[in-house]
Write a structure and sequence with these properties.
This is CubicO group peptidase, beta-lactamase class C family. The chain is an alpha+beta fold. It has one domain: 3-Layer(aba) Sandwich (Beta-lactamase), CATH 3.40.710. The protein is about 30% helix and about 15% strand. It contains twelve helices and 14 strands. The chain has helices at about 10-25, 65-80, 105-110, 130-140, 160-170, 175-185, 215-225, 230-235, 250-255, 265-275, 285-290, 370-385, and strands at about 5, 30-35, 40-50, 55, 60, 205, 260-265, 295-300, 305-310, 335-340, 345-350, 355-360, 390, 395. The strands form four sheets. Strands 1, 2, 3, 4, 10, 11 and 12 form a seven-stranded antiparallel β-sheet that branches. The longest helix has 14 residues, at about 65-80.
């Protein structure tokens, strides 16, 4: 596998691990980007975007739940401008949301996966994820599965409609439009929630994960208990999770704020670059610190494994004490925050290290966190920065 791009000699370990992913760890096509102090120090790509088609500098792909970080950032931009109070009830901005015991739900509960709406009780019609009003109305009229704010459970597919509808109500623009006009275009990012048709030819189709020898607890529960939250999450998605559907033109063009974004490693790292530098022109330093604080943690009511979230972002989680199928988390430093995507893509910033990181690929892994391919690149990045792991776990800055 030929690797292309540039890599600062100080980060040669990242290039070595990237090559190892392609030659030893089953990688098909991928990209990785590391920015430190705002400077691009690693920008690599390699492998195949499709059979017989090399992964190119401008190849893009579906990054699944990495989308949530972009969606959360939109809410934070509105909060910094004084247009959105994250501690206010959702009904201040979305009055119709206050039905069936949801009147006291706070905006922060939507960001921290505490809203109690990780799925719908009844299946939506085919193509529902491409109909924003339908999904927003269904969620507004849904009864929460738990009292909002009392526990957390990953809102894998509903997060984007919940946060996105608040963004739409406050800004007067759709989530994808707001993100494009306020984030992607000002930062010069090739990052879309709602991919233009003229960019379709650049997309590397998703390659589903190989069936795991031992599935995570989430999938075990989903396939053995049809009334469980995992089962409802997988079943009540309007066909979006059917094989190949997420690569359809309808899926790519829709604004799906939980899982629908299209970009590459350069786009993911670029998204987090201003945050790695103290907030840039997006948020204040004070608000950046607020964004990074862990706000919900513990056994996830949906994923059935430990997760940790700040206000819309994943935080470092060490699950290696669990059985192998559930052992994937995200081994970052305590000051880092970002989001992983189904199959292993990941983007995050670490303001203390002035680090922004992005990794994308087309061949998915079977776990629920940052898989060994992405984690190897993260680990090599932190080593290059002089960070250390205590007992092989989380990353700590020199002297911590």
């Amino acid at each position: 596998m030929t690797v292309h791009g540039t890599c600062d000699p100080r980060f040669s370990q990242v290039a070595e691990e990237f090559e190892a992913n392609l030659t030893l760890r089953g990688e098909v096509g991928a990209s990785v980007c590391v920015m430190v102090g705002g400077e691009v120090l690693v920008d690599l790509w390699g492998g195949e975007a499709a059979p017989g088609v090399p992964w190119a500098s401008d190849t893009i792909g579906h990054v699944w739940s990495c989308t949530k970080g972009a969606t959360a950032l939109c809410a934070h931009l509105l909060a910094v401008r004084g247009d959105l109070d994250l501690d206010a009830p959702v009904i201040r901005y979305w009055p119709e949301y206050g039905t069936r015991g949801k009147g006291a739900t706070l905006v922060r509960h939507l960001l921290t996966h505490q809203a109690g709406l990780p799925t719908l009780r009844e299946p939506p019609p085919p193509g529902a994820f491409y109909d924003w009003k339908l999904m927003a109305d269904r969620l507004a009229n849904e009864e929460p599965f738990w009292e909002p704010g009392t526990r957390h459970g990953y809102h894998a597919l509903t997060f984007g409609y919940l946060i996105g509808e608040v963004v739409r109500r406050v800004s007067g623009r759709s989530l994808g439009t707001f993100f494009r006009e306020e984030v992607a275009e000002p930062l010069g990012l090739e990052f879309w929630m709602g991919l233009p048709k003229n960019q379709e030819g650049r997309v590397a189709p998703t390659i589903p994960a190989d069936p795991p020898e031992e599935p995570p607890a989430f999938y075990v529960k989903a396939f053995t208990d049809p009334a469980s939250l995992p089962a409802l999450v997988l079943a009540h998605e309007g066909g979006y999770m059917a094989l190949g559907e997420s690569d359809s033109r309808a899926a790519h063009s829709a604004e799906i704020g939980a899982v629908g974004a299209i970009t590459n490693a350069r786009g993911l790292a670029g998204l987090y670059r201003p945050l790695s530098l103290g907030g840039g022109d997006l948020v204040t330093r004070e608000h950046l610190a607020y964004m990074a604080v862990t706000a919900s943690a513990g056994i996830d009511a949906v994923l059935l494994a430990p997760t940790r979230f700040s206000l819309g972002f994943m935080k470092a989680t060490d699950n290696r004490h669990l059985p192998p199928a559930d052992s994937e988390g995200a081994l970052l430093s305590a000051t880092a925050f970002g989001h992983a995507g189904m199959g292993g893509s990941v983007g995050f910033c670490d303001p203390a290290a002035r680090l922004a990181f992005g990794y994308t690929m087309n061949k998915q892994g079977a776990g629920l966190g940052v898989n060994p391919r992405g984690q190897a690149l993260v680990d090599a990045t932190y080593r290059a920065l002089g960070y250390q792991q205590v007992y092989g776990g989380m990353w700590y800055a020199p002297g911590d």
